[in-house]
Write a structure and sequence with these properties.
This protein is of the alpha/beta class. The protein has helices at about 40-45, 95-100, 140-145, 145-160, 175-185, 200-210, 220-230, 245-255, 275-280, 295-305, 325-330, and strands at about 1-5, 15-20, 30-35, 55, 60-70, 80-85, 125, 130-135, 165-170, 190-195, 215, 235-240, 255-265, 285, 315-320, 335-340. Strands 3, 5, 6, 7, 8, 15 and 16 form a 7-stranded mixed beta sheet that branches. A 6-stranded parallel beta sheet has the order 11-10-9-12-13-14, sandwiched between helices. Strands 2-1-4 form a 3-stranded antiparallel beta sheet, with no helix packed on it. β15 (about 315-320), α11 (about 325-330) and β16 form a beta-alpha-beta unit.
């Protein structure tokens, strides 16, 4: 089968190669991939700025159909439409974090698409416990966005615990920021979305998805505009989804006293910010990285509820042979979510 493979360490070293189809072991399930999302992490693997283990097939956000089950596997139907929790592909199972279900902190962990073979290919084999069946009304395209959506579910509902009646700021209208927005809107929370001067396409999408206000920080000061929009108060919660120093400072400036700040994006560098703001406003700061299996259960309940649909986040779906175009679209912030298919 054709697959997008990081074939050697270092910058680049990525291409479509012909590789053997994976064999379905007795305890495994073989999934035919329908769609797999392109994500910033894939670009980092290409540039070798995210840990990877070549040769490895990229792709970690995907959905598809079960086509084979191992002889020891029970309870998985051929033809089931599934999305896959790829991050647990390899864990130790015995460290304190594995035992708490917080596998993301397991020192032995390797996820699909960089640690073990991922889904920019025709087939993958996984364990049955990694599978989540998607509801009938949900398309395989939108189910392919489940992995980043799970990160938004953890950030909004589990870490920040945004409550109805609060006003939220989402700073950074990339895919994760817009997924946070979708959840907040579905929960009836007044949400303001901020972006940089080159985020106009994504800010327009935010308005379409139900943001109460969007702020272009290339034109307006974030803190001042937020205070004007909230009767001088500031927002109750801020989700930093841009990973940019000015966004971090803007979030701290925009929060009301006793407000809650959650770091959802990676900054990738050391930054300066006024730490006294945390003291004087008595802010609570949290980080939110990935999700737990419990988050994925919650996400399936959200899908089932029918109030959140994700198809309007998909800009285009390209064959994996056009991966260069797909990666460029992902890098230049004009598209929202780019999918690929075998
Ligand atoms: Zn990703
Ligand atoms: Zn572990």
């Amino acid at each position: 089968m054709k697959a997008l493979v990081k074939f050697a360490p270092g910058e680049g070293n990525l291409d479509i190669l012909d590789v053997a189809e994976p064999e379905c072991g007795p305890h495994q399930v073989k999934v035919e991939i329908a769609f797999c999302g392109v994500c910033g992490t894939d670009l980092h693997v290409m540039h070798d700025t995210f840990r990877n283990y070549p040769p490895v097939i990229l792709g970690h956000e995907f959905a598809g159909t079960v086509v084979e089950t191992g002889r020891e596997v029970a309870g998985v139907a051929i033809g089931a439409r599934v999305t896959v929790l790829g991050a647990t592909a390899v864990t130790c199972g015995v460290c304190r974090y594995c035992r708490e279900g917080r596998f993301i902190f397991c020192p032995e962990r390797r996820g699909m698409g960089h640690g073990v073979n991922g889904a920019f290919a025709k087939y993958v084999v996984v364990r049955p416990d990694q599978l989540y069946c998607i509801p009938d009304h949900f398309t395989l395209e939108e189910a392919a966005i489940s992995e980043p959506f799970a990160a938004a579910v953890q950030a909004v509902t589990e870490v920040t615990q945004v409550r109805i009646g609060e006003t939220a700021l989402v700073s950074g209208p990339g895919p994760i920021g817009l997924l946070c927005l979708k959840l907040l809107v579905a929960e009836g929370i007044r949400t303001i979305v901020a972006g940089a001067a080159n985020d106009e396409v994504r800010l327009a999408a935010a308005r379409q998805f139900g943001a109460d206000l969007t702020i272009n920080t290339g034109e307006l000061d974030l803190g001042e505009t937020i205070r004007e929009a909230t009767g001088g108060q500031g927002v109750d919660v801020a989700l930093e989804c841009a990973g940019h120093p000015s966004s971090v400072r803007g979030c701290l400036d925009s929060l009301r006293p006793m407000g809650r700040y959650t770091q959802v994006a990676i900054c990738g560098r050391e930054i300066q910010f006024p730490i006294d703001r945390i003291f004087y406003k008595q802010l609570t700061l949290s980080g939110s990285i990935c999700y737990t299996a419990r988050t994925w259960e919650r996400m399936m309940q959200i899908y089932q509820g029918g109030r959140v649909r994700l198809h309007d986040l998909i800009s285009v779906a390209l064959p994996i042979t056009e991966w260069r175009t797909a990666f460029e679209l992902c890098a230049d912030r004009k598209a929202i979510k780019v999918l690929m298919h075998p």
